[in-house]
From TrEMBL:
Protein name (record): 15-cis-phytoene synthase
Gene Ontology terms: biological process: carotenoid biosynthetic process
Molecular function GO terms recorded: 15-cis-phytoene synthase activity
SUPFAM superfamilies registered for this protein in UniProt: Terpenoid synthases
Organism: Spinacia oleracea
Recorded name of the encoding gene: LOC110787554
Length: 104
C-alpha cells in the first residue's frame, strides 16, 4: 500500500492525505519503511543485545520521524545537516560521570 500511496494511488481518505503530502514535499519512501520496521519490532523485541541494535531501533522509531518533518517544516537541507555539527551531547552529564565517561 505504501508504494501505491507514493505512486499517487491512495486506497482511502487517510491514504489520500499522505499521498497529497508526499506529492508536495520531497519525502523518501525508505523513511516510512524504516518507521514501520521499527514499529513492527516493538511487537516482538523486548531487549537489545548491544548499543548498535538500540541505536538502529531508535533511528527507525524516532529518527525517521524527525527527518521526515524537515522538508514539511521548511527547514533547508543545509541547516538540517549543520545541526549534526553543533557539538550537542544529549546524554545527561551525571550519567556520564557515574560511568566515568567524558564527552568530547
Amino acid at each position: 500500500m505504501l508504494e501505491d500511496i507514493f505512486d499517487g494511488y491512495p486506497h482511502d481518505k487517510i491514504d489520500a492525505a499522505l499521498a497529497d503530502t508526499v506529492q508536495q514535499y520531497p519525502l523518501e519512501i525508505k523513511l516510512f519503511k524504516y518507521l514501520m520496521k521499527g514499529m513492527r519490532t516493538d511487537t516482538w523485541k523486548t531487549r537489545y543485545e548491544n548499543y548498535e541494535e538500540l541505536e538502529q531501533y531508535c533511528y527507525y522509531v524516532a529518527g525517521t520521524g524527525g527527518i521526515m518533518t524537515v522538508p514539511i517544516a521548511g527547514i533547508s537541507q543545509e541547516f538540517h545537516q549543520s545541526l549534526a555539527l553543533r557539538g550537542r551531547v544529549y546524554l545527561p552529564q551525571d550519567g556520564l560521570r557515574e560511568f566515568r565517561l567524558i564527552d568530547k
